Amino acid sequence: MERAEITRGQLDIVATPIGNLEDLSPRAQRVLREADRILVEDRRHAQRLFQSIGLQPRTEPLHEHNEREQIPRILAWLAAGEHLALISDAGMPLISDPGYPLVSELRRAGVRIAVIPGPSALLAALALAGLPTDRFCFEGFLPAKSGARQQRLQELAQETRTLVFYEAPHRILDTLQEMCDRFGAERGAVLARELTKLHEEGIGENLGEILATLNAHPERQRGEMCLVVAGAAASAAAEADLDQLLRPLLAELPLAQAVRIAEAQSALPHRRLYQRALA
């Protein structure tokens, strides 16, 4: 059954520049001008954008620390017929930025929501990297603690899709080293740095080269970073699947018996299973 809209207002999700203010579209400018209130992640950061288009809007804070408590107030403004806009500090809101709890709740409440697409570091980095884009996996920020980060990288080591990560400058060297350890230093990769800004660049052709470049040039360890990493070769992922099948069998049974059971379960060639079991 179709839900009835319970509010007269509307929320517009507006993508904003990730660096170059000229990337704010005419449609985005119009929506921001027409909004009764603009929900902003950081008022001071948003002010630079507003000044660039000669706008002095009414703003309300919406960030990871207050988002849920703001939802009742936002619903009240929408019920009164207000037109709201949502922006983050840069790029598309909700993508590694606040907004998911709000939008989820507003959809349940039947609120009209529109999206004004635009700049995205994720898509810009993919386009710049020259790695396969037909299938990719966005991981956002890896865990800050080394142990949890290494565990997540281990889980991703056999992922065959192109991987995209955001990373902070103070963690980039540790992350690259851990990726070299788990993915291999020769794994294809490009570090997209300072996208759309004056010093935009794409660094390296593989993980080892990126790490060596940043170690040699500390000044290139600064700024906004998006790391694009090639997926594992299909053959490597297939070997990992064989290991997952064989390992528990080999832990309990003689090699020959384990191989026979694996062959029955997988329909893979006996010789291939036997050689992998030996390895």
CATH topology of the largest domain: Cobalt-precorrin-4 Transmethylase, domain 1
Widest beta sheet: strand line-up: 3-2-4-1-5
User: Mean pLDDT, rounded to whole units?
Assistant: 92
What is the CA-CA span between the terminal residues? 57 Å
Please indicate the percent range of residues in DSSP E strands (runs of 2 or more): 15-25%
Instruction: Give the C-alpha Rg.
Output: 24 Å
Helix percentage range: 40-55%
The helix/strand class is alpha/beta
Low-confidence stretches: none
- Give the SSE order as H and E letters: EHEHEHEHEHEHEHEEHEHHH
CATH superfamily of the largest domain: Tetrapyrrole methylase, N-terminal domain
How many β-strand runs?
10
- In one word, what is the shape? elongated
CATH level-1 class of the largest domain: Alpha Beta
Number of helices: 11
Question: What does this entry look like structurally?
Answer:
The chain has 279 residues and is of the alpha/beta class. It has three domains: 10-119, 3-Layer(aba) Sandwich (Cobalt-precorrin-4 Transmethylase, domain 1); 122-142 and 161-229, Methyltransferase, Cobalt-precorrin-4 Transmethylase, Domain 2, CATH 3.30.950; 234-278, no CATH class. The protein has helices at 26-34, 43-52, 67-79, 100-108, 121-129, 146-156, 172-183, 207-216, 234-252, 255-266, 270-278; strands at 10-14, 37-40, 59-61, 83-86, 112-116, 136-141, 162-167, 189-193, 201-203, 225-229.
